Every structure is written in structure tokens, then in C-alpha cells.
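Hi, here's the filled form for the chain we discussed.

Project: internal
Contact: R.S.
Residues: 178
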Amino acid sequence: MPRKKLFGIQPLVVAMAISSACRSSTTPSTATFDGTWAGTYVIEQCAVSGWPSCSGVGENNSLNLLLTQTGSTVSGTVEFPDFSIPVTGTVVNGTLSLTGHVLKTSDRLASETADLIQWGSTLDQDGLIQGTFRYKLNTTWGPGAPPYYPAFETWTSTYDAHIVRTCRTSDSTLAHCR
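And the returned structure, exactly as it came back:
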């Protein structure tokens, strides 16, 4: 190949290499939810079956998350004021989805479980978790429940809530979370 053509081709090859190296990835980065988080949530509505009513609608409640993230897979614990639920989930396009189940108590009177049915959250521009979730409390009355409660009947309370403000506890600027 004559020397003149070789020099004419080289700038084109170099320009293509630089263009490829500078091109941004088309795959969105995975948001990192790994860590210990503390904050609050508010119950927006509640539906009951068996129970005469719900309590706590409109009230602020504490919320703690202890999460471990490997790639897009997340596991850990969601801590509510009166119980904790072990959870598993994924991060897809920056949205954390979680579900979980726990047996709270079980005796002759009743068996109580809690289910995190739906969790959808993202990180806002300040690194705070924002989102909504739904959980369900189930009470199945045991053989010792009559005459006050019907044996082997399940009563439920389903809560829809939104996360008010939840910060990573290792964040040295927690003032923006209060």
C-alpha cells in the first residue's frame, strides 16, 4: 500500500476508535439500595375483612430497611414499628421491587402473619428513597378463640402506604432527611 493512502486511512480509523470510546452506554446503571435506611411512611388507606375497622390511617410511622444488593438482586429486612418482614426483590430500571412474608405469632388462640405484597421505590435526586407499598396483616383464629372469635376463620387488614422520607443511615448529611 502506498504511504500516502496509509496516512489517509489512519485518521479515519483513529476517529472511529475515539468515537466508540466516548459513546455512552445504552444500559442504565443500577441504582444502589444496599445499606441501612431509616425514615417514615404514612398509611393512605386500609381495607379490612372480619375486623370492624382499621387504625393508623394518616399517621406517620417509623420505617427501617436493612438491604443487601448484589447486581440487581436485593434481600434484607423491612422493619415496621411492631414487626419485621424478611424481603427479597430486584432493581429494574432504577425501581426497587420487594416482597416478603413472616409468621408473627402462633398459639392456640391465633396465628398472625404479615405479607409485604407490593413495594415500588426509587432514589430521588437527593438519594432518598421515595415510593409506595402495600402490606397485609392476617389473623387466623385457632381452636382456643371461641366464644369470642370464630375458630379457623381468617381476618385481614390491608394497608396502602407511601414513603415520606427515608435516608441511608451512613449518610453524614442526614439533616436533609429530617
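Let me know if anything looks off before we file it.
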